């Protein structure tokens, strides 16, 4: 485990931090597999198509939000400065914290409906779980890309 932490560069980041800060960083910081070719793993799973789907869904459900491209939101980087990227990165964490517990609940509902032999609801829950899973992956994908840009700006 120590080798994985050292290889990922987290060892220096974790020095001088308390338990909760370390736990948070270990969870949210992109893992080695996520950094592979700048998020190529997510692209293989079709994250760019999911991103387009979520943008279209957002435009349908919340037109006012999307008609103001320069206003801060959780879906579009509005400020490409170092501070703006850090702010957007924090918003990806918040979004992931919203979607992750929901994913656990969806998994429970799928198992529960399968146990009750309610296959229609289990199928619907599985579809909802896939959509929610892609929302989580999109946050992680964006965070990986943001970290790469921030590393370039620091050098």
Short structural summary:
The chain has 155 residues and is mainly alpha-helical.
Explain what this protein looks like in three dimensions.
The chain is mainly α. It has a domain at 79-155. 77% of the residues lie in helices and 0% in strands. The protein is built from nine helices and no strands. The protein has helices at 2-8, 10-14, 19-28, 32-35, 40-44, 47-61, 63-66, 82-115, 119-154. α6 packs across α9. The model has no long low-confidence stretch (mean pLDDT 82).
Write the layout of secondary structure elements.
Layout (H helix, E strand, L loop, with lengths): L1 H7 L1 H5 L4 H10 L3 H4 L4 H5 L2 H15 L1 H4 L15 H34 L3 H36 L1
Helix pairs in contact: 6-9, 8-9
CA radius of gyration = 18 Å
* Helix/strand order, N-terminal first: HHHHHHHHH
Count helical runs.
9
Residue ranges: pLDDT <50 for 5 or more in a row?
Answer: none
Strand content: under 5%
Number of strands: 0
N- to C-terminal separation?
28 Å
Helix content: over 70%
Q: Largest sheet, described in full?
A: none
What does the average pLDDT come to? Answer: 82
Structural class: mainly alpha
Globular, elongated, flat, extended or rod-shaped: what is the shape? globular
């Amino acid at each position: 485990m120590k080798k994985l932490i050292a290889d990922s560069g987290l060892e220096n980041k974790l020095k001088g931090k308390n338990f909760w800060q370390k736990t948070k960083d270990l969870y949210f910081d992109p893992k080695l597999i996520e950094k592979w070719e700048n998020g190529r793993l997510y692209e293989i799973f079709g994250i760019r198509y999911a991103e387009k789907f979520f943008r279209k869904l957002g435009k349908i459900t919340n037109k006012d939000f999307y008609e103001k491209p320069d206003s801060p939101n959780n879906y579009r980087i509005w400020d490409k400065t170092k501070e703006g990227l850090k702010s957007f990165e924090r918003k990806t964490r918040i979004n992931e914290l919203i979607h992750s517990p929901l994913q656990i609940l969806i998994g429970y509902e799928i198992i529960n409906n399968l146990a009750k032999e309610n296959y229609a609801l289990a199928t619907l829950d599985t579809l909802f779980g896939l959509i929610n899973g892609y929302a989580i992956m999109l946050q992680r994908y964006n965070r990986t890309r943001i970290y790469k840009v921030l590393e370039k700006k620091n050098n």
